[in-house]
């Protein structure tokens, strides 16, 4: 697959077909093959190891069936934004072994629901939230993986710790033995052009280097969860080890 001159991915978004709420409007397996080809090509362009960026499927608003199609195609890493959806789909998806992450904001009264169902929380953005997760895990004698979410676009509307406060958060969470930090996550800047989008991703990669070299993050916390349907190739060029893909694979999201 080729990227156009702007560096944007060559996979067109699926059409928003009226009345498509019930049946999946797209061939999930072939779209996944296209996305995988885009990931592979971006890794090669960036001189990175083949296979060094995972595809996480952002499944918000999607019913179980297209998600099961993705599982059958061999893609079993999913991310849900809302705890309610994580809980609601768990039984239907349990037929196939898979790994679920929480990629949306987490309210402390929902932590217990998440702990049984998600193996990773990508939205840890405050020491207070991390502390509460740690306490629930102590009660259960369990542990969980996390990403620290950073607000690289500095928009007030976005979750995530401010980049200048990330070191303090990393040090605090590193001290919580039941939370294993995999790395950093960001949503990035919702720009139109690579020039607008790239700096957010570059900043997250630089922040990881700084936090590891200063000892704020443990050495193993090298992962970068960044990049979505519209810009995942760019994110990979900037070092993403996990891209979060929704609409390019599943088509436009059904309306709530
Ligand atoms: C929806 C979502 C994505 C995927 O977005 P698409 O543009 O549909 O690929 C990625 N990350 C998060 C946090 C999301 O909420």
From TrEMBL:
GO terms for molecular function: pyridoxal phosphate binding. Residues 66-254 form the Alanine racemase N-terminal domain. InterPro entries: Ala_racemase_N (IPR001608), PLP-binding_barrel (IPR029066), PyrdxlP_homeostasis (IPR011078). Residues 1-23 are annotated as: Disordered. The modification N6-(pyridoxal phosphate)lysine is found at residue 60. The keyword Cell membrane does not apply. Pfam families: Ala_racemase_N (PF01168). Its cofactor is pyridoxal 5'-phosphate. It comes from the Bacteria. Keywords: Pyridoxal phosphate. Belongs to the pyridoxal phosphate-binding protein YggS/PROSC family. Pyridoxal 5'-phosphate (PLP)-binding protein, which is involved in PLP homeostasis. This is Pyridoxal phosphate homeostasis protein.
């Amino acid at each position: 697959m080729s990227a156009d001159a702007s560096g944007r991915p060559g996979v067109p978004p699926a059409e928003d077909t009226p009345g498509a709420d019930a049946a999946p409007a797209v061939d999930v397996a072939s779209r996944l093959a296209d996305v995988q080809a885009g990931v592979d090509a971006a890794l090669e362009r960036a001189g990175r190891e083949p296979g060094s960026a995972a595809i996480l499927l952002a499944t918000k608003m999607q019913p179980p069936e297209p998600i099961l199609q993705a599982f059958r195609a061999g893609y079993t890493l999913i991310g849900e934004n809302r705890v309610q959806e994580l809980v609601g789909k768990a039984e239907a998806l349990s037929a196939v072994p898979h790994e679920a992450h929480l990629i949306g904001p987490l309210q402390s009264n929902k932590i217990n629901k998440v702990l049984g169902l998600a193996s990773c929380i990508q939205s840890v953005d405050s020491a207070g939230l991390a502390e509460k997760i740690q306490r629930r895990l102590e009660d259960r004698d369990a542990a969980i993986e996390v990403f620290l979410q950073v607000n690289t676009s500095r928009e007030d509307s976005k979750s995530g710790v401010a980049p200048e406060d990330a070191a303090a958060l990393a040090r605090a969470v590193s001290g919580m033995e039941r939370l294993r930090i995999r790395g950093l996550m960001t949503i990035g800047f919702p720009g139109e052009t690579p020039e607008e989008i790239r700096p957010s991703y570059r900043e997250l990669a630089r922040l990881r280097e700084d936090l590891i070299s200063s000892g704020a993050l443990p050495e193993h916390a090298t992962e970068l969860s960044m990049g979505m349907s519209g810009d995942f190739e760019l994110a990979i060029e900037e070092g993403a080890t996990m891209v979060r893909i929704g609409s390019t694979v599943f088509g436009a999201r059904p309306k709530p």
